[in-house]
Structures are given as C-alpha cells and as structure tokens.
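Team,

Forwarding the record for the chain on the shared tracking sheet. I've put the sequence and predicted structure together so nobody has to dig through attachments.
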Amino acid sequence: MMQGDAGEDGPAKRMDSDDGPPVRVIADPVWLFRQACVFVKGVVNAAGLPDAPMAEVAFAGRSNVGKSSLLNALIGQKALARISNTPGRTRELNYFRLADMLHIVDMPGYGYARASKSMVAGWQRLVYDYLGGRTQLRRIFLLIDSRHGIKANDREAMKLMDRSAVSYQIVLTKLDKLKAFEIDKIYAETLAEIGKHAAAYPEIIATSAEKGTGIEELRRAVAIAAA
C-alpha cells in the first residue's frame, strides 16, 4: 500500500493498487464532518441492506434518549434525522452517507412501552440480522440518557452486542440536564458497568446536543472507528 501526500482539498489519500482508485483517509474529523451528508434509504429487513463495502457506524439507544437530536448535532444539519415527539418513531435502519465514504446508521429505538408485540418482534429481528453478519459495521455508539443511567433494556442491548462480538461505545446524552456532582456520579457508574462487558469500548463520551458538549469528541471517535 502506498501513502499519498496531503493536498489542499483534504487529508492524505491512500492508494490500494488492488482495490481500485485512491480513497481519502477519513480519520480527519474536521474534514470529514464538513462534507455533505445525505439520506440513502430506510431498511426494513436484511435483504435491503446496502451491498457497498463502505464502512458503517451505527447509533442505538432507548426510544427517548435523544438520538435524532444528537445525530443532527453531529452532522451539523438541523433536520437530517427526523425528530419526533412520539418515542419509537424510527422503525427502520436509516442509512445516511457522509462524504461518499461512510454510512451512518440510525437504528430503531428500543424500550417504547406502547409498541405492539409484533412491532417489537420485527424490530428485534431486524437488529439481530444486522448485528449478526454486517462486516462493514465498525462500531455502534450506544446512547444512554445521563439522567437515568444504564437501564435493564440497555443491558440487554449490551449483552446482545457482546454475543455478536460487535464493538460498541457508550455515549451519555442530555448532559446539560445534570449538575456537576451528578455528572461525576453517572460517569463513575457507567464506567463500572462497561467493565463487565467484553465488547464495550473502555471510554465514555459525554454529550449535550443542545449545548454542543462532547460533539467534537464524538466526531473524532466516529472518524477513527471508521478509518
């Protein structure tokens, strides 16, 4: 493999002579998140998953964890991910393409009490199929509401990812709703919890979509995971 020189239009390029044309090194979050991000498709079953070998990172969490707001803050587009007052609205794997080189996947929220059993079963099957054999998936960012910490259904999701050997990283949301001493407490409790899980990344990212806290750190984590 031959490493190219950095140019004025972005980071250095990597040349893979056997795999086609040069591709940009995407581990530069400043460059990456200045690029266009577009909605690609909503996937309702494994047959609809994109065939492209493009790297993927996914975002998961409870249905009211603030995932859409965080995704919009991450991408820097206010209405890219649809925000709804109705928890559990996301019922598909929603694919977004960033810089024509990375898929960001918005996974269905879990834990919505009013969802029917058949709906929950459909979501679960989709998620099981996705986790079971998606070689493009580099990391899942598991969102946890910092006001409540890790709940029973979060632990179930973590166990599923452990069994699937899918790397995941905890992202605390809504940090602006906590006082300083509460932040220290939830951070320590979350660190203790992830130490029990084999596939959990050992670092936590604490965020607030409203205040912009932790967004640059999350962008760095996404870029590095996908590189």
